[in-house]
Amino acid sequence: MLRAALLSVLLGGATPLSSQSTTTRTTARTAPPPTTPNIIVLLVNDLGWQDLSVPLYRDTTAANRRYRTPAIEELARTGVTFTDAYASAPVGSPTRVTLLTGRSPAVTRVTADLNTDAALRAASPVEAPALGAPAWNINGLSATPKAARAYVGTSLPRLLRTAGYRTIHVGLTDWSRHGTDGADARTLGFDESVPGARRADSLVSDAIRGMDAARAQRKPFFVVLAFDAVQLPATGDSVPVDERFLDDARTRTTDARDAAYASRIAGVDRGVGDVLQYLSTNALTERTVVVLLSDNGGLAAHSRSGMRHLQNAPLSSGMGSAYEGGLRIPFFVRWPGVTRAGLRSSTPVIADDLFPTLLRAARVSNIAAHTRDIAGQDLTGTLNNTAPLARTRVLFWHAPHDAGYRGPGIEPFSAVRVDQWKLIYFYSGSRYELYDLDRDLGESRDRSLSQPEVAHRLSELLQHALRASNAQLPIDAAYGRPLALPGRLLVPPSLR
Asked: Which residue of 84, 252, 403, 432 has the fewest C-beta atoms within 10 A of its own C-beta?
């Protein structure tokens, strides 16, 4: 068991290291309360840690003042805000697969974005031309046994459907390649799927119809509402800027791209508000778990205003990067009767944790059998602060090829976080970097030489995580074979 093995290594070492939207829509007749809660996962595409009016840093920043997200503010007031939350990967497709399976990208071998030109390249990452990409699962997630170049596993919606839920997906998939069986969410256990990149209000309307249908059947519902926003049209997105919010955004920024970006964030927030209003109008608020998160760190190398890679400050870099800007995400959970309203938790958590947490919320039988080999942990005790997860838990990332564009930390890497310490191994040049995130959130000062004991201990944990997950490594282009596992960072004799 990956989690147990990692913890064993750790413990065996030295001291570890709003206003709501006014839209109201309901067509279904009122049903008796289900015995299990409804569950809604609001997955926002490319939403950065700084892209909200809800501050996730210790102070309110200029970015927080730029955006207006009253519905998400309401979610924060009534639920739990995680300030140290992470995506499973620095790009979206691997995180989406992890959300549905509970398995990390290293295990699923879905380690890059699907349905992009970068995904189709066989080798030669931009920042590391001497390295090639491994034979990863380019077809993503599949329900077909022995599917080629795909991960096959039991999905969360299938487990919830077995537990009596009506399961609904609306919006982006990107957990499977277009044209494969997994691209149809119904093959993965969703009763209903309405795919497509569309405006937030259109997506919410489809989600509400699905929830109405579940209520008519007197079933609890599980909804994944995957917004296309907030990526910009300049990145290849065909969905237009939300014109309803553009003028308001322009009053707060003079840059056209920033105004367009702010309008898309406002459109998503309006969609979130519509969902919360629907729950309130139909007396479902106290019977519904609501989760909001992003699939990766915020855009930084793409077409936003100002200098590239600085939009997520104080975090370094952005989407695709090993640094905090590529991995840290907004993450909110409201679970009535469990969450402590208004709690801000600095416990490090990761998207992997949603799988066991939602199984617990849904009261799925034999949860242990479904979570035996996953690294994610149940967040229930953390949500009410009665038994929070230890800061000394091991968070692990593995990205054996880059995202296809240039920027700080955008290259093949593996990393672990334990307590305030984060160790990154970059395969190009076989180099380690160690950061103290409590004192240096922007990762500006490498501490691998000044803290050799910490670096040594975390390098052992990284080695163990890679072995336990049977992770694929980048290919040495000169020899056509995988690189060796990262070595241990040894403590110099003078410091022993």
From this structure: 252
The CATH number given to whatever domain includes residue 141 is: 3.40.720.10
Residues in the chain, overall count? 496
What pLDDT does residue 271 have? 96
Question: What is residue 361's predicted lDDT score, i.e. its pLDDT?
Answer: 97
Residue 183 covered by a domain = yes
What residues have CB less than 8 Å from 272, skipping those under 6 apart? 42, 69, 71, 72, 75, 292
CB atoms within 10 A of CB 417: 26
pLDDT at 377 over 50: yes
Nearest-angstrom CA–CA distance, 427 and 417: 18
CA distances from 122 to 17, 38, 131, 138, 401 (A): 38, 42, 11, 10, 10
In a domain, 345, yes or no: yes
Tens of pLDDT, residues 424-481: 999 998 999 999 999 999 999 999 999 999 999 999 999 999 999 999 999 988 888 9
**Directed axis angle between helix 256-281 and helix 70-78, to 10°?**
50
Residue 133 lies inside a defined structural domain of this protein: yes
- Identify the domain containing residue 301 by its residue range: 20-386
Q: How many domains does the chain have?
A: 1
% of the chain at pLDDT higher than 70: 86
Token code pair at residue 50: 């700084």
Residue 180 CA to residue 169 CA, distance in Å, equals: 17
d(CA 227, CA 92): 12
In DSSP terms, which residues pair with 169 in a beta bridge? 193, 224
Residue 304 pLDDT > 80: no
Domain-embedded: residue 217 = yes
pTM score over 0.85: yes
